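Journal club side-thread
Mid-discussion, someone asked how the predicted structure for our own chain would compare to the paper's figures. Pasting it here so we can look after the session.
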Amino acid sequence: MRSRQQRDGMLVGRQALSESFLERHAALRDYFCDKDAEAKGVADGWELSLGWPGGVERHVDPRLDEGLAWWGDGVRREAMALARRREGKVLRSLYDSWTLHSWSEWLARQSAPPSNLTILHVDDHEDLGSPRLFTDT
């Protein structure tokens, strides 16, 4: 799915998604997985709005509210992806996507790049797929 950034969202070509609401919803759910994506038809194609889900049905932990209360700061389900704290060399976050950011901060502080660096990120995803990235030239 090729796209270009819009000020209010992401724009994809009309041919990239089905005109059928159900098929379009299924394709967006498959592509963006954990995020909720809504598509609005516009002259140039589809404008996508992405957001983190806040509904109870989208989270499997029955004690999530208890955990969020423990975390503090009034964090809600739809804001969990941004919840993080750094204490010295330790970064704690509610989403593992902060792993690469933490390592990139460390790398930026180095006077010279290390000659050999291995970053191992063990995850529980079942898809074993590579990230869906592209370069638009």
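Post-session note: Residues 57-109 form one domain.
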